[in-house]
Amino acid sequence: MAPPIGASSRPSAPSPPTFASDPDYLGPISATPQKMVEEMLCMANVGTTDVVFDLGCNDGRVCITAARAHGARAVGVEIDAGAVVKAKRLAKEAGVEHLVRLERGNAVRARLAGATVVCVYLLPTGNRKISRKLMRELPAGTVVMTYVFRLPAEEWDAHLEDTRAVASTRDRATPGLDASSYNKIFMYRVPKVKPAWCQSSGGGGAGVRLLAAAVAAAGCFLFLAIKHNSEGAGKSKNGASANNKLFWG
Fold first, then answer.
1. Angle of CA points 38, 91, 184, to nearest 5°
2. What pLDDT score does 201 carry?
3. For a tag site, which of 78, 101, 111, 233 has the least CB within 10 Å?
């Protein structure tokens, strides 16, 4: 049947992917402005001994910048398959694909083994969903960076080390609107003594906790290959040897 007069015969554009039906959905996908990526990594003092995780990495810019500008290894987790394809292409174009690992997956279920710095740019609802995972699974000393929105105050404010307000999200030839009231970076550090709620079941029970610990231990064993350096190894933010090598295959 012919289309009505005036109607386009071209097929309609596909709807954008939606992940809202996922119970662990963390919110809309948005990339951190490049200037703020650089500010965040500098504030975290990222170096060659670090492994930077970006949970919800979009086009991989945090991971790529960490590798290219700081010589760090990086892991990005992104639920949008199209964004992962783009991120891998950009990492290759930047010449850092050997330092960057980009995976499709939900950040709530991601393994965090080996992380020394974790970057998050989520709405408050997403931060709340991922907050306890970060505290439970990350070792003491790990730095957690958030952009614009803080982690839940009752769970993380005691471990907030620094806050930085930046006037603009990009460098300008002339001053623009001052965005420092909301354009902020928050730096937290996982404490040596974790809150009591880290030992609670959180609805999962002791069996789930034991299983999660076993999975984390197995993931850590597969994820890190320890290479001894007779000249002495540097220490990362959470005390891991600087000679730890990640399996990127």
1. 20
2. 54
3. 233
Tell me the per-residue pLDDT of 192-210, one tens digit each, with 9 for 90 and over: 999 888 876 554 433 334 4
What burial class does residue 222 get, using C-beta atoms within 10 Å of its C-beta: 0-12 exposed, 13-18 middle, 19+ buried?
exposed
**Tokens standing for residue 203:** 């609805």
- Encoding tokens for residue 216? 């984390």
Burial class (CB in 10 A: 0-12, 13-18, 19+), 25: middle
Burial 4-24 (b: 16+ CB within 10 A, else e): eeeeeeeeeeeeeeeeeeeee
The DSSP bridge partners found for residue 63 are none
Give 235's contacts (C-beta < 8 A, 6+ positions apart).
49, 241, 242
**Quick check: helix, strand or coil at residue 160?**
strand
Q: Provide the CA 158 distance to its chain's centre, in angstroms.
A: 21
Residue 113 CA to residue 54 CA, distance in Å, equals 13
Report d(CA 208, CA 11) in Å as an integer: 48
Residue 225: pLDDT band by 50, 70, 90 thresholds? very low
Q: How confident is the model at residue 130 (pLDDT cuts 50, 70, 90)?
A: very high
The label of the residue with tokens 């970057």 reads 119
Give the global pTM. 0.75
